[in-house]
Amino acid sequence: KWEEGNRVVVAVKPQSRENITISTVRKFYYWLLSKVSDTNEVIRNFTGFGLYDRKFMDAVKKYHDPFPYFRGLVSEIGFKRAEIEFVQPPRLRGRTKNNFFILYDLAMTGFVNHSKLPLRLAVFLGFILAGLSMLIAFSYLVYKLMYWDTFNLGLAPLVVGLFFFSGVQLIFIGIIGEYIGAIYTQVKNKPLAIEDEKLNFDTPADN
Description:
The chain is mainly alpha-helical.
């Protein structure tokens, strides 16, 4: 595959003979990451094992990220690639060192590096919560005006007010998160573009 011009040849496992729970969670994770990722296409069931061209590795070095999510970089850089499928057999000896905490850390690295959705969830939830609180408050006000003597408000205004201000807090937390996300993006200093090949350009002579 590499000799055919593919800069990257990755091994993916559409099927696995490992623990059914781990396999199901992994498939769900890749599905979710592909839905929320800013990257064009996330390779599913890809563990990082593959053959990488020198030009691809030079492009990886341009990413000033001490903790890169390599599986996402393969898709983000965008060189021509080929996929080879294999079936992972069950482990015969020993135990894997990838415990829950390591897998969780790896999963969160993927979300943080390739999606802004976790930051924006606070804003979305804040607007939804504040909007619902205002709608409920307006409904209670209408009912109170219509049935002034019989309709008892009770603790409803206090609860609605609590939910409203909680929504406002979520909105401002989300706005702060947007600024943090912008700072994080600038600190990573990603290259604006990855050069694959030059056509009709003179190559400067090496010193």
